[in-house]
Amino acid sequence: MQTFFSSLNDIERFTQSIGSQSSCACPHCQLSDQWVSHGYVYSQAGEITGKRLVCGRRYGKNGCGRTQQLYLNEVLPHRRYRLSVLMAFITRLIQGMAVRCAYHAALGHAIYEPRQAWRWLNALWARMPRWRTCLPSLNITVRRYRSWRLRLLLNALSAWLTGSDSTLLQEQLQQPFC
Questions:
Q1: Do 156 and 134 meet the contact criterion of CB atoms below 8 Å apart?
Q2: Other CB atoms within 10 A of residue 104 CB
Q3: CA dihedral sign, ordered 74, 68, 157, 45
C-alpha cells in the first residue's frame, strides 16, 4: 500500500478509492475491502500531516482492527522536524560544516543543544544499507571527517541526493527516510 503522498488532496482521493482497489490489502489480515477512514494525523504544532485508516472490525466489516497511517511526503513519521530541515542539515554537512554548526544553521537558531543532530545521524546510519542497495556505484567524495561513520554516511547521502529530488525521496521509496 502506498504510504507517502505529495498533497492532502492525493491522500483524500486515495482513501475514497481504496475500497474498490484489490491491491490495497491489509498487511496483517490480507483483506482489501475493509478500510475505513479514521481521522487525520496531526503534528505537535497542530498541522495536518497525514491520515489514518483502520481495517474495519465493526458495522459488518471483518477486518483485523489495525491502523495504517498515510503521510505527506515532506513529513518524517515520528519526528518533530520536516524533511526539508533534515535535508538542509545533510546539505550543510556535505558542504563541510561541523555537525554543531550544520544543526544550528538548518534550524535557523542556536538555542537547542546539538545532541539531536547526533540522533539524526544515528537514525540515518541505520537506514544506510537500504540506500546503498538502491544506488548505482557513484564515486563522490565529500570533505574528510575524522569519523569514518560520518564519512561513509555522507558519501552515500551525497550520491543519493545527486541522483534524485530530495522532496520526493519518501514518495519514491514508500518508506520513511529517517
A1: no
A2: 19
A3: positive
CA–CA separation, 164 vs 18, rounded Å?
29
Q: What is the dihedral of CA 133, 134, 137, 138, to 10 degrees?
A: -130
Per-residue pLDDT tens for 129-178? 776 666 555 455 555 667 777 877 887 777 667 655 666 666 666 677 76
CA distance to 91, 140, 154, per residue, from 162 (Å): 11, 10, 12
The model's pTM: 0.75
Give the integer Cα–Cα distance in Å for 62 and 22: 15
Residue 133's Cβ-count burial label (10 Å; 0-12, 13-18, 19+) is exposed
Q: Give the N- to C-terminal CA distance of the chain in Å, as an integer.
A: 19
- Rounded to the nearest 5 degrees, what angle is found at the Cα of 171, between the Cα atoms of 166 and 172? 80
Would you state the cell numbers that stand for residue 174, as one nine-digit string? 514508500
What dihedral angle (degrees, nearest 10) is formed by the CA atoms of 10, 12, 15, 17?
Answer: -70
